[in-house]
Amino acid sequence: MILNNEFMRNHIIHIKSRLSGVGIMIEQLAKMCKEWTIDKDVAFGMNLALEEIVTNIIQHGYNNREECDITIRFSLDKHNLRIQIKDTAPEFNPINVPEPDDLNKPLEERTIGGLGIHLVKKFTDNLEYRRTNSKNVTTLLKSINNGN
Q: Which of 3, 45, 58, 101 could form a disulfide with 123 if both were Cys (CB 3.0 to 4.6 A apart)?
């Protein structure tokens, strides 16, 4: 892969708030990671994080209403893979979700909720959120340097 200071790649997709859209999105991420020669561990973590965020938007933000829009922008620069997700669901800041306090308990003893966002935070180097023009803008960032 040729990388220089001016190096920047982008790919934008628009999906509807259907679980079938998650499959389309994951296919696009796999295509971008292959085309951009992203390390398989980086691709795996970002896939998991993206799927969690978008599934939450569909199920909880849009309450499974199927005709709402979600825009996903994949970007690659010299050092980072960045995925930005925009939606018009009610405001939800994933950064404010507390860490589960029962991670060491057996699965049947854990409280429901929070584990997915915990994994998003673990599989990304940076999770950003802002509310702009009545839209949630969530950004996932992962370093591509040496697969870290």
A: 45
Q: How far apart are CA 129 and CA 7, in angstroms?
A: 25
Closest by CA to 9, choosing from 82, 85, 84, 86, is 82
Domain ranges, residue 14: 8-97+114-147
If phi over 0 gives left and psi between -120 and 50 gives alpha, with beta otherwise, what is residue 56? Answer: alpha
Cα–Cα dist 52/46, whole Å: 10
Instruction: Give the H or E element holding residue 8.
Output: strand 8-16
Tell me the whole-structure pTM to 2 decimals. Answer: 0.85
pLDDT digits (tens, 9 = 90+) for 33-44: 999 999 999 999
3 state SS of 35: helix
- What residues form DSSP beta bridges with 70? 15, 87
Does residue 103 lie in a domain region?
no
